[in-house]
């Protein structure tokens, strides 16, 4: 049975992963005595899963490298310096980073990319996400993934196209941009809508997560897939079979 070490084990996702693991031929490594010790968690596990916070990533990656254990990173709000750390770690160990471990978002990314490519520049693209009141980062990691997919379909990058701050006298919408809007409230697990709008018609692609168990099962699936893989940076698409 594969033993999984969880970083962020007492959080919402950490608890959901611990609940999902036994039904998927996995067990959670370590006990309460190692919960604050990244190295002890890494030493006790076959594979690691991190759903914590960006500021903890460096220590968690260092522990994974020291123990030579693969790691799935679900933490969002990552900055370019965090991706540089992940790239460096992936030269020594297997690393899979994703802003969403659900099955549905993998498919939605492909649909968004294709729609953006086929519809062309007369269609405006807006992404709306809503999450629970305690979410730390905005836009969500998933909204950024969907934005990247839309930008790829448009033949550009999200860095070039994104608009996240609309307020005041903003004037007409610039063609070729991708708007991202974040709503926060209540206990919403995770809703994402991608709106394609042109004169007189509109297409909306929507994913709603009702239960964190979908993310937890995807994370455990990714961890079982990653265990034993050689060093490298892997994607959720690879886990789901392209
Ligand atoms: N990829 C995906 O599919 C999903 C990703 N996420 C992302 O996962 C992350 C966690 O989400 P969620 O479980 O809801 O958040 P929670 O706030 O419920 O849990 C975060 C956990 O991380 C720990 N933590 C926070 N800061 C640190 C730190 N500096 N060092 C060590 N541990 C720390 C917390 O411990 P303590 O309370 O003791 O500080 C807590 O146990 C977020 O980035 C979220 O966006 C969430 C859902 C799905
Ligand atoms: O913080 C959350 O809760 C979630 N975070 C991820 C994100 O930022 O996209 C995934 C999911 O939507 C829930």
TrEMBL record:
Q: Out of the domains of life, which is the source?
A: Bacteria
What sort of enzyme, by top EC class, is this? oxidoreductase
Q: Which Gene3D superfamilies match?
A: Dihydrodipicolinate Reductase, domain 2, NAD(P)-binding Rossmann-like Domain
Record's PROSITE patterns?
Answer: DAPB (PS01298)
Which catalytic residues are annotated?
131 (proton donor/acceptor), 135 (proton donor)
Q: How does it assemble?
A: Homotetramer.
Which named protein is this? 4-hydroxy-tetrahydrodipicolinate reductase
Q: Name the source organism.
A: Sphingomonas leidyi
């Amino acid at each position: 049975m594969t033993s999984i070490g969880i970083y962020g084990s007492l959080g919402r996702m950490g608890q959901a992963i611990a609940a999902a693991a036994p039904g998927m031929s996995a067990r959670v490594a370590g006990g309460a005595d190692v919960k604050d010790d990244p190295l002890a968690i890494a030493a006790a596990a076959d594979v690691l899963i991190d759903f914590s916070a960006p500021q903890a990533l460096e220590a968690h990656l260092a522990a994974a490298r020291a123990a030579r254990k693969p790691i799935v990173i679900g933490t969002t709000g990552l900055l370019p310096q965090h991706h540089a750390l992940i790239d460096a770690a992936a030269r020594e160990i297997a690393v899979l980073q994703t802003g969403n471990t659900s099955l549905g978002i993998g498919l939605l990314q492909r649909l968004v990319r294709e729609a953006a490519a086929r519809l062309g520049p007369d269609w405006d693209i807006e992404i709306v996400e809503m999450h629970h009141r305690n979410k730390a980062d905005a836009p969500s990691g998933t909204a950024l993934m969907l934005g990247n997919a839309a930008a790829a379909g448009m033949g550009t990058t999200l860095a070039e196209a994104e608009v996240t701050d609309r307020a005041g006298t903003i004037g007409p919408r610039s063609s070729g941009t991708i708007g991202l809007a974040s709503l926060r409230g209540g206990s919403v697990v995770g809703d994402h809508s991608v709106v394609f709008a042109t004169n007189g018609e509109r297409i909306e692609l929507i994913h709603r997560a009702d239960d964190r168990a979908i993310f937890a099962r995807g994370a455990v699936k990714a961890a079982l897939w990653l265990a034993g893989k050689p060093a490298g940076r892997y994607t959720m698409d690879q886990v789901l079979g392209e």
